[in-house]
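Input record (one chain):
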Amino acid sequence: MSSPALAISRYFWIVCVGYAMDLGSYVAMTNLGVHLYVAYLASFAVGCTSNVLLLRRFFAAGRHPLAKDIALSMASNGVVIVLAMGLYGALMHLAGLHHVVAKVLSNGVSFLVNYRVRRSWF
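The corresponding structure, as predicted from the sequence alone:
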């Protein structure tokens, strides 16, 4: 495996752990009756923070102090999450997909975009 392929593979597995925390918190909140879009945003914050901590520990030390890294990640991922939420809504309302399936698919798209952003800027 080439070095870029190894890097994206390592990134993928680390982010999967953070994503499990994101998805788990989303499912828990929706089961508790939290509105779908509120749960989507709250679980985004859980997942983003988890990913920053995991990526700094196991992928790259980070170019910025932790608080700044989390803030920058929230900001950059926040731009992507707007696009992902549009896809999420479209998948649910236009394609008729279950909200959990729509979240998984929309987060998959955001994974690819966030990977490029993180490699380039963080």
